[in-house]
From TrEMBL:
A GO cellular-component term linked to this record: nucleus
Keyword set, alphabetical order: Coiled coil, Nucleus, Transcription, Transcription regulation
Membrane-spanning residues: none
Species for this entry: Pisum sativum (Garden pea)
Protein name: Uncharacterized protein
SUPFAM superfamilies hit by this protein: Leucine zipper domain (SSF57959)
Coiled-coil blocks: 88-129
GO biological process, one term: positive regulation of DNA-templated transcription
Gene3D superfamilies cross-referenced by the UniProt entry: 1.20.5.170
MF term (GO), any: DNA binding
Length: 224
């Protein structure tokens, strides 16, 4: 109740100040606490009541009257507004920074996607090259196996040929020893190349006989 009474007194004081500023003659009001309840209340006309309500609304909406009416409250409101504006400004700045970071991250993601696509293409090409190299390695391994088999065969053949050569050398060596021994023991019986070479006179006689023979000789003439 006391609070309501104080609010009523504040409203009445605001109305009084407003009427003084606007040069409106309004009868003075007595606070409710100082009113004589034994007397009947003053009856006000409806136009005057409407005027009072209008003035009360204008005083409430007018910041100058608010400053004049309650300066402490006004300071508190202004301080709250300033203190509230700072975090709002910080929040807006923070949101702007986040948007800038988001744009940078999106651009970096797009760049990384392109790099990933390039790396995937390089990986595919490297896999294809690896498959081709593996095929070539398999072919070379087969060739190496074939060459190893051929080399083993050649080694076996060489071994056989060496054995045959050794056998031939062992067989020829005693024959040569016998020939040398016979040559030294019986030189008259050894073969000489001069025995096969005829004399010049015999060769001329044979040539003359061949020239005297007809072109188609008879076998009986040749072999009587």
């Amino acid at each position: 109740l006391c609070r309501k009474m104080s609010d009523r007194e504040n409203i009445l004081s605001d109305m009084k100040d407003n009427t003084q500023e606007n040069n409106i003659n309004v009868p003075s009001f007595v606070p409710f606490s100082r009113m004589n309840l034994s007397k009947p209340p003053l009856c006000l006309s409806p136009p005057f009541k409407a005027h009072m309500v209008e003035n009360h609304l204008t005083t409430i909406n007018n910041p100058t009257t608010m400053l004049r009416v309650n300066p402490k409250k006004n300071k508190r409101v202004l301080a709250n507004g300033v203190s509230g504006h700072v975090p709002r400004r910080k929040q807006a700045q923070y949101i702007d920074d986040l948007e800038i970071k988001v744009n940078e991250i999106e651009a970096e993601i797009a760049n990384l996607k392109q790099q990933v696509e390039l790396k995937l293409n390089e990986k595919h090409s490297l896999l294809m090259e690896r498959e081709s190299l593996m095929g070539q390695v398999a072919i070379f391994q087969e060739k190496i196996l074939v060459n190893d088999a051929e080399l083993e065969e050649r080694k076996v053949e060489v071994k056989k040929l060496r054995e045959q050569e050794l056998q031939m050398l062992t067989n020829v060596q005693p024959m040569s020893n016998d020939l040398n021994s016979n040559y030294h023991q019986e030189p008259s019986q050894t073969w000489t190349p001069t025995e096969l070479v005829p004399d010049e006179e015999e060769m001329e006689a044979n040539i003359m006989e061949l020239m005297k023979m007809p072109e188609n000789p008879n076998l009986n003439d040749l072999f009587p």
